[in-house]
Write a structure and sequence with these properties.
The complex is a heterotrimer of chains A (about 240), B (about 240) and C (about 400). Chain A has a single domain, classed as MetI-like (MetI-like fold), CATH 1.10.3720. Chain A contains 10 helices and 2 strands, in the order αββααααααααα. Chain A has a two-stranded antiparallel sheet. The longest helix of chain A is centred in the N-terminal third of the chain and has 36 residues. Chain A is elongated, with a radius of gyration of 21 Å. Chain C has 2 domains: about 240 residues, Rossmann fold; about 130 residues, CBS-domain. Helices cover about 30% and strands about 20% of the residues of chain C. Classes of the chains: A mainly alpha (about 240), B mainly alpha (about 240), C alpha/beta (about 400). Chains in contact: A-B, B-C.
Chain lengths: ~240, ~240, ~400
């Protein structure tokens, strides 16, 4: 390992942008810009697919349960319990017991993303002032309409918070997805002997940057979706 | 390019099992889910990883908590620090711990210290945010009354605001503790030991070990969570009474 | 030094409060919130600061315990400048009651009440004793002392707020719309109880409200304020109602000033009519003779028992026979007491659709008859009654 941290980071950046020599592959170059971008895109793909699945399953369920006010134990309990599950064990077990490949890994990643979405959707809708909901009901809005037009817009900050948490959790676990045969940026990190120290650090940097970018984009999206009236309220 | 570390299911060789003292009964079943024989005989090999795990988790939480608490008291007194600090710590939270481990490698090297720094930072974010939230949620009328009655700022903080913020702080602590215990399994990747060692490397195709290690992690998380919940109940008697 | 520190009984320890050109100017504001306020509140009196929202009454009150800092001028509590004192120390000598109450949710009622005594270093036993004493004083079961605020109703919480302010036997009480958040029925009850309390303990109270009726009911003196904390009139309730200083005060007090005056009086304060009395079995001829008398204003005799307690009004039919019957034709209708507040008496009369009502004393014996005519005559007359003022001092009920 390079003794100067600074030099290590330089090495990492070089790795990202231009192919390097490697010990294992007998002189064939590894890394480089194309490879970095390829894995970055793959990582993003995996994350987004899993996130989509999680959203489809958890968002409507969470919103509806919150609207009805039922199942609080369930929604919150699932969320609490899921936090305790070590991702490494999950990925490893998937690889051995279920099989490798995106088809097997994506649902599992989605499951990791369900608890924050479910929890926050529930809490967000639950916390909408009952008076507002009453008024809407009194105006003759159908239950579905109330959720869509009244509760969801008000709950956006909380709900988006849950989606952001889920996205990051999925992205993080996608990093070790190579253990189950799914190529992502984690490749650089896990296959240290192939990609070398520079690769290792490069992988970490890229994952971090990707995470910050997704978080930032979702934050912007949240701001766009939050009505101006809500923004006036100080948190 | 498929990872050389992943072996397709079923291609496990005899050496693999011999290393682990896996009896013939267990060997015979391909893709066996859980082998009780092995579990009974080899349970003690989980002892050291468990202790290592605690050696990572406990210092992380303590350091993270103390740092978060101090920072929160500061941001409580100097209001305008809150948004920038919340944003700054938010970044610590966003960067996946696994990436964070490796980002720190050049600076702090392999081993437990790096793991502790990363997990402490993660804990710090959660507890800082929750403490600030808890303090901000104290009703203004209660603070007004306390001040008008003659409490000094310090007395208001320690006798009124912090006790009322306990539920939020403990809630944050619970999340931080449980998450930290789970994430610490990744510490194996930077040679910091812990229960992750039984899930990774040579154990990758041996579900029994993975499941046992995973179960220990979950049990540990549950135990800590329950203790914290109990502490919260004991320190907030006023929340248990029914409303008039 | 706060008086009464060494024994349990509430001692009449109260200081005067004096504003001397007290001014509050918030940074960046073009006008002062309170502009050179000069006012004196004698010890042991309730001074009500009343005015429209934003007139500075709350700001003025808060400058006494420096929860709002004074820009210029001074406030003297017991002739000592508040500016020279340490704020926390000062506040422990002044009772503070706010509209939202602000009880500590995480402390029991006893602990809430004992908050300031604890800050002052009282012994535990003494604090417990004091808390029990105060709970009884404000009309709450001392058993409630171990409960938490969330377990009490709004009215109960508000009373605890007052008890808490009284705990360390303060020199002055500051009350900012203390009964504002309560429903009208309980508000009246709380107001009456506080007046009853005040009659016993005689604290100096600065009371802020936007409700002129509350001001008239509660205040020994009222300061009507407008923007900038300018006092348009500082006078007793009676003076305010009968001689408003200018149009602003007149508008604020309200067009029904005359009726408001009735709130200051009791039935006993007015000259009642004589009732022609009749006893059971008395000869109707005698009763008729009484009715002929020129002094009698009422055309109906009142049937009373041997103790002179009213039983009912007698009609023409009742007097048809030789003797007065047991039971009169018409029901008795409203019966008033000498201690009743005049406004309530008028309401009872109107409600009962009666022209007249017998007025009885504490034993229920007839003392006279009140009619709507008497009341309207009085309102129309220019007689200013300084006696009205004394009605406020007497304990209710």
């Amino acid at each position: 390992m390079s003794s100067l941290p600074y030099a290590s980071f330089i090495g990492a950046f070089e790795f990202i942008f231009s192919p390097q020599e490697s010990n294992v592959t007998g002189g064939k170059k590894v890394g480089g810009f194309d490879k970095s971008v390829e894995l970055l895109i793959k990582h993003l793909e995996v994350t987004l697919i899993a996130l989509a699945i999680a959203l489809v399953v958890a968002l409507p369920l969470g919103l509806w349960l919150g609207h009805r006010g039922k199942g609080e134990q369930f929604a919150v309990g699932v969320s609490n319990a899921a936090r305790a599950i070590p991702e490494l064990a999950v990925i490893a077990l998937v690889a051995v017991l279920i099989g490798v490949g995106l088809g097997n890994v994506a649902p599992v990643l989605a499951i990791l993303g369900i608890p924050p979405i479910l929890n926050n959707a529930y809490v967000g809708v639950q916390q909408v002032d009952r008076a507002t909901v009453d008024a809407a009901r009194g105006m003759g809005m159908s239950e579905m309409a109330i959720v869509r037009k009244v509760e969801l817009p008000i709950a956006i900050p909380t709900v988006m918070g849950g989606i952001r948490s889920a996205a990051i959790a999925i992205l993080a676990t996608a990093t070790i997805a190579p253990l189950a045969g799914v190529e992502t940026l984690g490749d650089f990190i896990i296959n240290r002997n192939v990609y070398g120290e520079n690769g290792l650090l490069a992988g970490a940097i890229l994952v971090a940057l990707l995470a910050l970018t997704i978080e930032g984009s979702l934050a912007l999206l949240q701001r766009r979706l939050t009505s101006d009236g809500l923004k006036l309220k100080t948190v | 390019m498929s990872s050389p570390l992943v072996l397709a299911a079923g291609e496990v060789g005899g050496d693999f099992f011999r290393e682990r003292n896996v009896g013939d009964l267990c060997q015979a079943q391909p893709n066996h889910l859980f082998c009780w024989e092995w579990a009974k005989d080899n349970i003690d090999r989980f002892g050291t990883p468990t202790i290592q795990h605690l050696q990572i988790v406990i210092p992380s939480i303590l350091i993270g908590f103390v740092a978060a608490f101090a920072l929160a008291l500061l941001a409580h007194r100097i209001r305008w620090l809150q948004p920038p600090l919340l944003a700054a710590t938010g970044i610590l939270y966003t960067i996946p711990s696994i990436a964070f481990f490796f980002l720190l490698l050049p600076l702090t090297g392999l081993g437990r210290d790096t793991a502790i720094i990363v997990l402490a930072a993660y804990t710090l974010q959660i507890i800082f945010r929750n403490t600030i939230l808890g303090l901000n949620n104290v009703p203004a009328s209660v603070k007004d009354a306390a001040r008008g009655m003659g409490f000094t700022s310090r007395q208001i903080l320690w006798k009124v605001e912090l006790p009322l913020a306990i539920p939020e702080i403990v809630a944050g602590l619970r999340v931080a503790v449980v998450s930290t215990i789970a994430i610490a399994t990744l510490a194996v990747l930077i040679s910091a030991g812990g229960l992750g060692t039984e899930m990774y490397g040579s154990n990758l195709n041996f579900p029994t070990a993975i499941i046992i290690a995973g179960a220990i992690v979950i049990l540990m998380a549950f135990a800590f969570d329950s203790i914290l919940l109990l502490i919260q109940r004991l320190t907030t008697p006023w929340r248990r009474v029914s409303q008039a | 030094m706060p008086s009464g520190e060494t024994d349990a009984q509430p001692q009449p320890g109260a200081s005067s409060v004096r504003y001397e050109e007290t001014t509050k100017l918030y940074p960046g504001a073009s006008e002062p919130a309170v502009d050179k306020l000069t006012l004196e509140v004698p010890a042991g009196e309730i001074c009500v600061l009343v005015g429209p929202s934003g007139c500075g009454k709350t700001t003025a009150m808060r400058m006494v315990n420096r929860t709002v800092e004074i820009t210029s001028g001074d406030v003297l509590v017991g002739e000592r400048s508040v500016r020279e004192r340490d704020p926390a120390q000062l506040r422990r000598e002044i009772g503070y009651v706010i509209q939202q109450i602000g009880l500590f949710p995480h402390r029991t009622i006893n602990e809430n009440i004992g908050a300031v005594p604890q800050l002052l270093g009282w012994k535990k036993e003494r604090i417990r004793e004091r808390s029990r004493e105060l709970l009884e004083l404000i009309g709450l079961d001392p058993e409630l002392g171990d409960r938490y605020p969330a377990q009490l109703s709004g009215g109960q919480q508000q009373r605890v707020g007052v008890a808490r302010a009284l705990a360390a036997d303060p020199l002055v009480m500051l009350m900012d719309e203390p009964f504002g958040a309560i429903d009208p029925i309980n508000r009246e009850r709380l107001q009456n109880e506080f007046l009853r309390l005040q009659a016993e303990i005689r604290k100096t109270v600065l009371f802020v409200t936007h409700d002129i009726d509350e001001a008239i009911k509660m205040g020994d003196r009222i300061a009507v304020m407008r923007e900038g904390g300018r006092v348009e009139q500082y006078a007793t309730p009676a003076e305010l109602l009968m001689a408003p200083a200018n149009e602003f005060v007149e508008d604020f007090v309200g067009a029904d000033r005359a009726l408001k005056r009735l709130a200051l009086m009791r039935v006993a304060d007015i000259n009642l009519w004589e009732a022609p009395l009749a006893h059971v079995g008395q000869a109707t001829a005698e009763v008729r003779a009484k009715l002929e008398s020129p002094d009698v204003e009422i055309p109906y005799p009142l049937l009373v028992d041997s103790e002179r307690r009213p039983l009912g009004w007698l009609s023409e039919r009742d007097l048809g026979g030789d003797t007065v019957p047991h039971r009169p034709d018409s029901p008795l209708g409203p019966v008033l007491e000498r201690d009743d507040v005049m406004r309530d008496a008028l309401a009872d009369l109107l409600q009962g659709e009666s022209q007249y009502a017998p007025v009885v004393d504490h034993q229920g014996r007839i003392t006279g008859v009140l009619s709507v005519e008497i009341i309207s005559e009085f309102l129309a007359s220019p007689e200013a009654k300084t006696d009205e003022h004394s009605a406020v001092e007497r304990p209710h009920e």
